[in-house]
Amino acid sequence: MLICIPGVNPQGTMQNSWQSDNHCLSNLSLKLLYLHAELFHSHHGLLEEYVQSLFDEGIVNDQFSQIQTLKSMEQPDLVVQLIDAYLVDVEMILSELTSYSDFPDVDFSKVTLLAHKVKDRSSCIGAEHVRLACDELIQASVQMNKQNFVRALSWIKKEFSCTQDKLESYAQHGHADGA
């Protein structure tokens, strides 16, 4: 650890106060920059491992990798904004779908349309589990089978909840370092 005493350089010899402080600050600044770089790379490595785990679990697909490449110096949190928009949109659509499950007579044409919206949005962001779960809902809707619709909706909501937790965690940690 470097301790600066005004008028004394780190080797213990006398210098004028400005030179000594400047030398100490530059050494301290270099050490802080090095520490920050180490922490950044360590955190970035952990974030990369987390993203890999999302791929390994099948939560996300290659489209998610494409989304990650969209960030830039001008818009470092663009990926976080896309994730947030996806989560809000799908949450609203799932809420609307849930309201249809409460009706005695389900309007399956609207259910099909909404299921396709969830599937399209999930495809765009790379949310693979949610996208796959949409196929069951679409099939139940085409068959006009309310029991299968309710079961498929429950599955989508479960997959979305898991995906939401994972993407929110990614967004929180990715945003912390500008990744």
UniProtKB/TrEMBL annotation:
Principal location listed in the UniProt entry: cytoplasm
The entry's keywords: Cytokinin signaling pathway, Two-component regulatory system
Cell compartment(s), UniProt: Cytoplasm, Cytosol; Nucleus
One example GO MF annotation: protein histidine kinase binding
Function: Functions as a two-component phosphorelay mediators between cytokinin sensor histidine kinases and response regulators (B-type ARRs). Plays an important role in propagating cytokinin signal transduction.
Entry's free-text remark on domains: Histidine-containing phosphotransfer domain (HPt) contains an active histidine that mediates the phosphotransfer.
Full protein name: Histidine-containing phosphotransfer protein
Organism of provenance: Ziziphus jujuba
Gene that this polypeptide is encoded by: LOC107410492
